[in-house]
Amino acid sequence: MTELDTPPPPGQAPVLTENALTVLQSRYLVKDHEGKCIETPSQMFSRAAFLIAQAETRYGERRADIRGWHRRFYDLLVSLKFLPNSPALMNANRPNGMLSACFVLPVDDSIEAIFEAVKQTALIQKAGGGTGFSLDNLRPTGDRVASSGGTTSGPISFWRVFSETTDAIQQGAFRRGANMGMMSVEHPDILKFLYAKQNLKAFTNFNISVKITDDWMKHVLKSSRALHIVKNPRTQQRYLLPRRLNIANYTINDLHKLTAKKPPASTKARRFYTVSDIWKMIVKCAHKTGEPGVAFIDRINRDNPTPSLGRIEATNPCGEQPLLPFEACTLGSINLTKFVKFTYGKADFDWPALAATVKLAVRFLDNTIDVCNYPVRDTVRLAQANRKIGLGVMGFADCLFLQRIPYDSQNGVEFAATIMNFINQKARQASRALANERGPFPNWNESIWRSERNSKVRNAAITCAAPTGTISIIADCSCGIEPAYSLVFTHRVLGGSKMLQVNPIFKQIAQLGGFYSRDIEKQIAKTGSIQKITKIPPKIRKVFKCAYDIKPEWHIRMQAAFQEHCDAAVSKTINFREKASVAAVDKAYKLAYELGCKGITIYRRHSRAREPMSLD
To answer: Which in 17, 437, 573, 604 has the greatest CB count within 10 A?
Structure first.
């Protein structure tokens, strides 16, 4: 098909804000050779809905019936009750044709494998996807290279090649290139990895996370003096890390080789880093720059739906989709604000409407797998064999605002668990219904869905909680499960342009209450909070708390509530005020583990000069 070779929009046009139109015109709508938009938002939604409807022909639907599916999917999108990840809107029915946002690529220990992964990264990111990598398989700095007789420059140098590749292709890409770099805490180059992003100008297109096992974490929680042992992935030889190491320049030859099962005597042990030492490094680095995050890798693999196909060693760039090497996943998010109804001045939640939306959204995402043009051949096989999708939510904070529920409250956490449990159960029902129609995902016989759950489903993983950055602007709602960053703030988008965003729910309530003014708007834009604005009633201030008004503990409890009812994982930033201590970050990381989160990312305000969302 050629661009715009789709039927006209089969229904009413969407109601969009000025900011939504700005984003769509900048990045989503089809342009001519001079850069002028030649597509309307209605045509874009029709283009996506029509392509997704075509998948129905694979399962026995007559072409005459496709018109009905086109209308159903179109109505779903223009209602803004559900939106798929950005590539599905950008690329549907266009020559690119890549609809998935999330990929994980293997990085094996050879020059050929590394640069094949670099090429695959370029293809995926050019098409608008994000990539995740594990650096665990790369031999450590200074290790022997038999083919040349020399030594390797190590994982960090090859990691830099991936980062430079992303920078190089970004100019022509639909969206900013995004990566996730992960390394086991037991890799010999872990110290280099921890400090690599403390230089804020390095690896700016990467998020990074340290992978931590349950056994290692048990030592941390006991505050033990257990020595930190690392292992060369090539030889399996174990080493200790001497405290005298020059972190920037050490090699494998500078480490202390363990020749016996028992570590050195306690008198010698003081010369080497302990588990507690490494943990403190992780926490201090995160406090300083927001990175690294932590991934609790054993917990992630306990939920691996296809363990016979291998361990999960990496996630997509924002951490909500743990994937096997060469797996891909298409995401979509339900806008919760659309299901809050007001009857006689009381807010009620429309559960039947949400159930119907979940059912149709699961079908939409499953269809996407069949019509997606995957840019890397190896991902086609695994994406279609496991058929992972990631259905999540956006507008959660706004949904709480509408119901007058504070984010940092037990009621807020309980509502989170209730809503995600409902979506998870209804999504599984929808996936089972599709399995009855179309058959379960091809690797079902080798999955925990067969061996442990005894349930035929169409998709190996069904739910997650994604960050929904730009699609939440299109839908005019808060991002993912995050609290509102501020009720008034500036959002920077690709290309450097800025957009002022005013929370529409707060504005409406403030206007009805007679306390809205331009002065108050300016005050909020400066501080990010209404908590000290006495002109605003206390009952309003209690509900309309923003990211930095909320204690980190409540951020983590909210993440854990969603995680309990997600197949995959949760993208969530734990916000800290600028003056937060290192000890507070330490406490947060441990609490995330104790409450069952699969990972944690924190950000201390103003720890970086440039932020995607900012105040005046």
So the answer is: 604
Amino acid (one-letter) located at 209: S
Residue of 85, 304, 316, 503 marked catalytic: 316
Neighbouring-strand partners of residue 181: 133, 208
Please, which contacts does 229-232 make with residues 24 or more away whose CB atoms are closer than 8 Å? Answer: 229/186, 229/258, 229/263, 230/186, 230/187, 230/188, 230/190, 230/255, 231/186, 231/187, 231/188, 232/139, 232/140, 232/143, 232/188
Neighbouring C-beta atoms of residue 249, cutoff 10 Å: 10
Q: Which residues lie below 8 Å from residue 244, measured CB to CB, with a gap of 6+? A: 271
Say how far residue 566 (Cα) sits from the centre of its chain: 13
Closest among 343, 296, 293, 341 to 322, alpha carbons compared? 296
Q: List the CATH number of the domain containing 185.
A: 3.20.70.20
Domain assignment of residue 132, given as a range: 102-298
Q: 301: which 2 tokens?
A: 């693999």
DSSP at 274: B
CA distances (Å), origin 477, targets 7, 399, 402, 469, 504: 29, 9, 12, 10, 8
Whether 443 is a known active-site residue: answer no
How far apart are the C-alpha atoms of 292 and 289, rounded to whole Å? 8
Residue 443: partners with Cβ closer than 8 Å, 6 or more residues away = 306, 309, 385, 386, 460
Instruction: Output the average pLDDT for the chain.
Output: 94
The angle, 0 to 180 degrees and rounded to 10, between the axes of the packed helices 111-126 and 155-170 is 30
Helix, strand or coil for residue 342?
Answer: strand
Number of domains in the chain: 2
- Domain stops at, among 276, 298, 320: 298
pLDDT tens figures, 557-594: 999 999 999 999 999 999 999 999 999 999 999 999 99
Is residue 528 left, alpha or beta, with left meaning phi > 0 and alpha meaning psi from -120 to 50? left
Annotated catalytic residue: which of 39, 186, 313, 320? 320
Q: What does the pLDDT average to over 410-419?
A: 98
pLDDT at position 508: 92
pLDDT tens digits for range 60-105:
998 889 999 999 999 999 999 999 999 999 999 999 999 999 999 9
- Please confirm, yes or no, whether 186 is among the known catalytic residues: no
91 as an active site residue: the answer is no
Single-letter code of the amino acid located at 447:
S
Structure tokens at 86: 């950005």
